[in-house]
Write a structure and sequence with these properties.
Layout (H helix, E strand, L loop, with lengths): L2 H11 L3 H16 L3 E8 L8 E8 L3 H12 L1 H15 L4 E5 H4 L2 H4 L3 H10 L1 E12 L2 E10 L7 H13 L13
Antiparallel strand pairs: 1-2, 1-5, 3-4, 4-5
Helix pairs in contact: 1-2, 3-7
Length: 180
Amino acid sequence: MSLLSSVIAIAEDRPELAGRRQAFLNVLAELVQADAGFWAWGRGWPNPDSITPVAMLDFGFTDEQRAVVIEWGLDREGNHLFRQRIRATMTSRLQAPSLRRDVFSDEEWATVPAMRRQLARGGWENWLHCVRYSASDTWSNLFLLRNLGRADFGASEATLVDLAMTSVAWLHSTVEESLP
């Protein structure tokens, strides 16, 4: 199934926003061959320390893996480093996809053992991330993971995820939302 036909089918079949987002996340995961991941939204700009996730929809996680992701997200040092790097890839854009290699070169990644260990605890070593700011301090993102030993995500998967974040309005968060 193509991205476009999936969006049409999901829109016709699921009137509630959370259901559309979850169904689309599952389709997108299949299209880019992700093993686990999430769509989330929250408040805060990536430069200060005031990022607050509000809601998350996920797929492919065991309870233990979900705990690893939450722990990673709460790790102040790793989170700050990750956000700085993501922000640098965005330049002046309000949306940017990034592969792990875009954020940390292989050489740099070798110097970030805490973050590598946290991902490895969940059974992963590669990610594809796309963040979109729909207002000055309201964001949504897709964070997709591949298990240890699998091939890295590439440019074609990053392009597809970027297209999805740009084109599928239900992936855009707004400050008025209260549900995933």
